[in-house]
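User: Show me a protein chain along with its predicted structure.
Assistant: Here is one chain, sequence first, then structure tokens.
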Amino acid sequence: MVLLLAFITMLIDHIGMIFFPSDDIWRMIGRISFPLFAWGIVRGYKLTKNKQNYAKRILALALISQIPFLFINQDLFLNVCFTLLFWLLSLWTIENKEINRYFKIPIIGSFLALADFFHFDYGIYGILSIILFYFTWQKKMTVVYFFVLTFLFYDVNYQNITFHYHIQILSVISVFILYFTPIQKYDFKMNYYVKYWFYPVHLMILYLIYWFVR
């Protein structure tokens, strides 16, 4: 149920981005999707028996998805799967006992800097969000932590220390849904191919529809 809701809200978000860019309601609904995917990727990481294969699948998905992603965005952005991949690298750094703890922060910092420099979708915010889910797994205080993280990234203007509304703050709704409703109890196994191919395929389909109707 969690991933199904994530896919539906992501689809709504991308429909709005491509076909109704001046109508914010589509994008507002779409803010729900990313935290649900973040929760799902952490859950998958915790359950998988082969973390190397898990990373390889995400890398393959990132490379395949980049083609339709560039068609739609027409900018030198890297899709969100690269963000997920760098989260995995950051987590491996954290978990690796052979790496001196004093080196872990600069290594993770370099991953965050690269994500920002190459304009990963959700960038630093995305990586930190998934790390947050990993360390606060199944804790209701995650709602508070995630709200603070989102507020600091999107609703604070650091040039003159003022606050403003940004629709990304609505993503907290999905975290509330995760931890204060029974949605997790109704989760079910999604078809392997649907789970991994929905992202690039739906981007390509939307782009083709847009190309024909414009």
